[in-house]
## 1
Amino acid sequence: MARWEPNAAERLARAALDLFAERGYEDTTVIDIAQRAGLGKTTFFRHFQDKREVLFGGTETDDLLITAIATAPAEASPLDAVSRALEAAGQAIFTPARREFVIRRQAVISANPELQEREALKDGRITAAMAEALGHRGVAEVEARVAAQLGALASRIALERWSQADSDEDFGAIARQALTEMRAIRAR
Amino acid sequence: MARWEPNAAERLARAALDLFAERGYEDTTVIDIAQRAGLGKTTFFRHFQDKREVLFGGTETDDLLITAIATAPAEASPLDAVSRALEAAGQAIFTPARREFVIRRQAVISANPELQEREALKDGRITAAMAEALGHRGVAEVEARVAAQLGALASRIALERWSQADSDEDFGAIARQALTEMRAIRAR
């Protein structure tokens, strides 16, 4: 098996995380981050618009979720399509190999109001993008927004549980379980 | 009927809104805002921690929603309690007298990424506070989070519709209607 070689964006994110933990978010510059990653400032700005953005990985997550929703079988319900999106996130983002990184990243975000704001904005945009992708499947507006919002909540709950669970638990399975619990509430 | 006399926080918010529209958010300082409102910088910081915060009115909205949830009848379902919270918001915040202000405020926020971030963070915190208030009513965690999230979405949809509707339409009634549509989807 080939050694896992992180790409530039991931190397910059990991370097940023180390530096934020070592000297604090405020006292870390973009140049510090690029240097620690063994890259130049220009490379940093090719990937991220500013320092805050380094922990939010560009638009890759959006693309992943939207593609999963778009390619779900025609007969899949809105929540089933959303479930597929969360499973795709489990396969690409919330993997066992990235688990420690994800947990450290969440801890840094939780400790910093500026990062919390950026995360809240990102979450809102991803939710809106999922609703739009459901709309392209012919789902009516309010129903699409409800499904996307429940998907976003299932993702948050799954992330909390996955971070606390044994390291070999599958994020996709935990997310499916959270959505099943939500459906049970809705059925009442 | 007594003339409606805005308080210091509201005067500061209105002055900020005028200035953001006139010269842009970036080129407006806290001192500019306080001066325009006929108040001092100290008064500004007694009400708001920074310039961004001036459009987000402290914790009054949170208190209003949480009180409405806490005082809903014991037999009210989680969504009924949330519906009461939105009606309370309609009576205190999204009133006919404040409609123009609310619409201008949303336009300024939509045009500014920093304000969008703060709004996203506030929305997330209010949603979490509503879920917590439902928890105090004995609602289980996942169900409380689902109801709060659906309430937040109903509030956003209602705000969009209320902003576009005739000026005498009641926000609370529009929010109730949005929640009814959501229940109909859930019942399917």
## 2
Amino acid sequence: MKITKPTLLLDKQKCRKNIKQMTEKAKRNDLIFRPHFKTHQSRQIAEWFKEFGVEKITVSSVEMAKYFSNSGWKDITIAFPFNQLEITEINELAEKIDLKILLIHPESVDFLNKNLTQKIGVFIELDCDYHRSGIPIENLEEIDFLISAIVKVKKLKLEGFLTHSGQTYQTKSTSQILQIHQEVKSKMIKLKEKYSSQFPDLKTSIGDTPSCSLADNFSGIDEIRPGNFVFFDVMQYKLGACKAKHIAVSVACPIVSKNEQRKEVVIYGGAVHLSKEFILNEDGTRNFGLIVKLTENGWSEPIEGAYVSSLSQEHGIAKVSKENYNDFKIGDVVGILPIHSCLTANLMGKYITLEGEEIHHM
Amino acid sequence: MKITKPTLLLDKQKCRKNIKQMTEKAKRNDLIFRPHFKTHQSRQIAEWFKEFGVEKITVSSVEMAKYFSNSGWKDITIAFPFNQLEITEINELAEKIDLKILLIHPESVDFLNKNLTQKIGVFIELDCDYHRSGIPIENLEEIDFLISAIVKVKKLKLEGFLTHSGQTYQTKSTSQILQIHQEVKSKMIKLKEKYSSQFPDLKTSIGDTPSCSLADNFSGIDEIRPGNFVFFDVMQYKLGACKAKHIAVSVACPIVSKNEQRKEVVIYGGAVHLSKEFILNEDGTRNFGLIVKLTENGWSEPIEGAYVSSLSQEHGIAKVSKENYNDFKIGDVVGILPIHSCLTANLMGKYITLEGEEIHHM
């Protein structure tokens, strides 16, 4: 395959292995596995999940639900606060598939009561200290009130409680991630128990990739919804949720210039390819991606001391070590492991496997 | 127009006024106006430039040069370090249009000598302290060497010296921007003068929107290449390069949730719509966009004390003031002025004018 400009490479073997491992973990723990498809947004990669027996999925928008519904997926949770402006599309989807949405506010229940034409499932979104959206899990009054509103509407089927513990992304150690997992799990179980006599079938659903990758104990939880594990990325690697060798995507970028004094390599690969997501290096500088050597069969481990230090629209600046500087040659192509693979895949718009096959992105 | 999900609104009147003002400034200062089209990437918006007499343009990739060449543009500078891997596409383009590229390294000249099939123009890219790419302007030895290599190759026409002073984006006041402009101008003029007896036709080309918007004195400069001014954005506003009322794009985002305790509004509009570009507020917190009220004829000035404080893939969290909190209602649509309009337009993929017309994006 001849690479002439930024190209999103997908290592299909690594990706399938990531899918296999999470699927097996879910099975081992007797969990409903409802992977989040917002990371790959690809009907072809979705098929690989199907091969491992996955039938239920999570998406982050109505548009994505439509895309996967059109590819034959029949059981979809839109893990995003219900957007009443999309009621027409939601009704259309609910006619065709087993659709589930998230509710937080009683006024949404009123709206659905008036405007829903189909029966749909609803999860109550809870906030377990991430503070993005959802009812604070301690606020039993609001939860009670919402449940009583939901059960009055015949077209709404109360599925259970759902939370996303995105605060695991702000941790500094795997033990902190496991501690958050433990706390969130306890709170969710306690809530489920509170309603168990009245609603014995309510499910608890949790989601973030760091917890789902690192934790081994899910007892009391019914469903997991990780997404990013399908590719992983530098953020997950730095969090300890994966090893560098598990990262299944890299952006192949031509080297177009160099600066010996600053030990910098200029790549064709910028914010419109990688996204401006960064992590902080230990010295406080920004890191927009790790650098790997492209090989016959994929790519190497990250090159010691090399990282993308800044991004313009199309330019990337890679800092490299004195020892490695001369290995980078104008006209060569290097690989960049993305900080956040969901955003990179969304920007790149398609994948090329190591075998040269083009894989669709929504 | 019924908005149900994140939608990139374009105020055509503001946009045309921005184009008109920069065109007139270029004329007043007897400058070649070669606007950078990487901001809008739209053949339709390009036509508005044509109406103001613009014939020469700048782009940031070979792909973009092809796109605009296909729309009839005949004089294009690719303001990005020459990428030898795209030589086939460059030869194809040079067959059809007056193409100019940037050179930094003598090995690129060797490569072009062997592989170029068409005559093309070349600018030497100089680094005037931005430290992204280009030969440091003080390094006369390297500049001399590159010029002597270029003039030996018949298919290369030496056009002049080009620089991008992106360091204006790191300033804290308009006086700092004007000082950088003055320094860069002086250095470029001095360099041009050094070569004027040998090469009397060499041009000096500068580019950044902050300098081009704020400066009034361009004497000694031949060409300007600003791009972002076509829309402007919050970054330009904060730099003082425009007023808020000049920002010609906003992302219309549905409100999907609220949190009274934190005075936060959750919008459908995330990193895949706005990009993760941010500026820092005075208190050091991140700001991913300012919030405006959508009106019959466009949008309001930014709402006092309201800004996007964090972004997930599809969620945006807006912090609002205690006084304004109740004005934000679930099911309403608010406008977000983007931090960096180039990246937002690239993500959104198309524009809708206030009149409801759909405008293409590459």
